[in-house]
Amino acid sequence: MRCKITKSKINEFMNFGQMPLANGFLNKEEFKDEFFYKMSVGFSEEISLFQLNDHPSPQKMFNEKYPFFTSGSKFMINHFSEYCTWVKNNYLKNGGKVIEIGSNDGTMMQFFNNFGYEICGFEPSKSAADISKSKNLNTFEEFFTENNVKDKLKNSKYKIDAIVAANVICHVPNLIDLIKGVDYLLTKKGVFIFEEPYLGSMYEKTSYDQIYDEHIFIFSISSIMKIFELFNFKLVEAVPQITHGGSMRYVIARKENDEIVENLNLQKQLLHEKKKNLDNIDGCLSFKKNCENSKLNLIEKITSIKKKGKIICGYGATSKSTTVLNYCDIGEESIDCIYDTTPEKINKFSPGKHIPIKDFKEFYSNYPDYVYLFAWNHKEEIFKKESDYKGKWFSHVEI
Ligand code: TYD
Question: How far is 226 from 236, CA to CA, in rounded Å?
């Protein structure tokens, strides 16, 4: 396997087996043609980069059927409002032109728009882009590639003050191409700000369900610093976030930009990553062991619940659940159904294991003995909402 950035050879260190598309919720008639790929991961010691090996093409995942909408979580809407305010206060006090990569249903663009910034977004999934357009937000239904940028924004060369993204950059296999697009657009003083699930949090929680087809990379501060250095950019700040079970917000500026200096915390953070083996293969090998133990524990737990004749249902048909269910080989014999709020998923079946997805409203008249919280990263919001449920919650991570 090759490092997707430097092209040097790297070794696969863990194989999760055959996986379907994480967001490939499907109808019964589609079972026989379901797409699977081998999901395995490797690590480039050269640039400290954790990456997927094989993966489906982005076009196969981000299209008119893509069923993830940012506005599905009130907590996330609030988070994007705070994200936008943070960008404004720290990097864009005087207004300016902003582009969002992977703008989904326009949740974050709306906040920039309300603040009076000139904003447009790139969103290749028609399902999400349509919603964004319906809010009158300037949306290109395209991937953010160097070619698309040059084609759609010919007049914006070196004119964009900030490019922002959230939970998107790790989705892009051709990161080099994306960085070229950023380079084309940003002014000399411009910043590229994005936040992504953090490798350190994944290791700490053994939340291996962060690994799925859409997450080509799981970044750390060390990897982001090394990647951007290759392209004449510098990492100036890394700010931890609680979203998605632990994320990191990165701020990138042009190397020659002397006005933005490296945050004092950064060297300390890098040292901490070294101590935790986030920058080398040892961290990967411990993580692998932890994943294998987590799988055994989960199977044991579910087997013991089922032996007692109890009912288990899932909560939140997340992309992450696809990794857990397929890696641990858990199906409808153990989990009766998964409740979810997304109309595009309801009445379909989970990818690979074909567990029925039901409307969350049915949960209230069918309280099961146990609920597997697949959307564990939204636990505060969900526990608050579901305080009437007196059965037992559990998950493969601590909740
Ligand atoms: P998220 O963890 O954001 O998704 P992913 O792993 O796909 O990135 O969870 C989103 C899914 O969880 C989505 O299908 C909606 C569902 N969900 C509920 O059903 N109820 C809720 O209260 C929340 C917050 C999410």
Answer: 12
